Amino acid sequence: MASLPTKQIPGVYHRRFGDILVTALSDGYVEMGYDIFREFSREAVDEMMARDHRVSPPRISINCFLLRGPAGTVLIDCGSQEKFGPTAGKLFENLAAAGVDPGEVEHVLLTHCHPDHSCGLTDTRTGERLFPNATVVANRKEIEHWFSDEQMAAADERKRVRYFGWAREQVGPYRDGRLKLAYDGMEVLPGITLVECAGHTPGHSTWLVCSKGKQMIVWGDLAHVPEIQVAKPEISMSFDHDPDLAARNRTALLARIFKEDMLVAGMHIHFPGFGYLVCEGSGYRVATEQWNFEI
């Protein structure tokens, strides 16, 4: 008998969206404990995860999305590199599996500067840009916050290292003319608009992609655990900068996504991360898209 495989196939999935080829790229996943939720009991987490036969405490997928079309070659978020251990940091091997060299990426759009979204920008050993020809685009509020010495001094030690320190380490090498600051409602590239959804971080953003009359929202950390936060948008995370604001903005944006029937591309929806919202009680659920062999 031939030897059995010991490694999963590459985490790469292509999908056409209007005149854009969208490629979901898995950065892996991270196992999380029960204390990630604010004011939500262990028993309640277990009950909600069990409805969908999910692991509890939650396993959180980490996805990035590559867009190739009229706006060029655009990567939305860039994974975690070595920051989350052996189950994550897979973006670059999956980019290679997709036949894409990091030097081809012209823009990296960040939803925010938490380490599972922005720690693939820079080689931590050398300080060199891992996307040598790319311009990084982020909400100006996000950059202002993480580069504020006053805000950093007011944070606890863990946040000073993992949030402020790592954000500066990763984004810093692009501040020599390779960083573009955006704002809510700004079309940063043809068909790609920043839609601010602050609360999780001061400048947390989603990216609205429009092509041939269709809309797709790449929603960052709008929901970390979709089985819970999409069903109950009022539930925030322990690491939200402003949990109440995050809950209000999540509730409002989910309602807009549902009303306008947007395709969702979620960083923490189970790979490949595409789906549509379905109204269910006072909340929603993500109806994940069926696998397609045809691109």
Describe the structure.
There is one protein chain. With 295 residues, this protein is α/β, with parallel strands linked by helices. The protein has a single domain, classed as Metallo-beta-lactamase, Chain A. The protein is 24% helix and 28% strand. The chain has eight helices and 14 strands. It has helices at 42-51, 91-97, 115-118, 140-146, 149-154, 157-171, 226-229, 243-259, and strands at 12-17, 20-31, 59-69, 72-76, 107-109, 135-139, 179-182, 187-189, 192-196, 205-211, 214-218, 263-265, 274-280, 283-288. The strands form two sheets. Strands 1-2-3-4-5-6-7 form a seven-stranded mixed beta sheet. The longest helix has 17 residues, at 243-259. The relative contact order is 0.16. The mean pLDDT is 95.
Give a count of the beta strands, DSSP E runs of length 2 or more. Answer: 14
Helix content: 10-25%
Q: State the end-to-end CA separation.
A: 34 Å
Helix and strand run: EEHEEHEHEHHHEEEEEHHEEE
CATH homology superfamily name: Ribonuclease Z/Hydroxyacylglutathione hydrolase-like
Largest sheet: 7 strands, mixed
Number of helical segments with 4 or more residues: 8
Structurally, the number of domains stands at 1
Strand order of the largest sheet: 1-2-3-4-5-6-7
Q: How would you state the average pLDDT, rounded?
A: 95
- Tell me the Rg in angstroms: 18 Å
Architecture per CATH nomenclature, i.e. the level-2 architecture: 4-Layer Sandwich
Low-confidence spans = none
CATH topology: Metallo-beta-lactamase, Chain A
Beta content: 25-35%
Per CATH, the class reads Alpha Beta
How would you sum up the global shape? globular
From the helix content, strand content and strand pairing, which structural class follows? Answer: alpha/beta
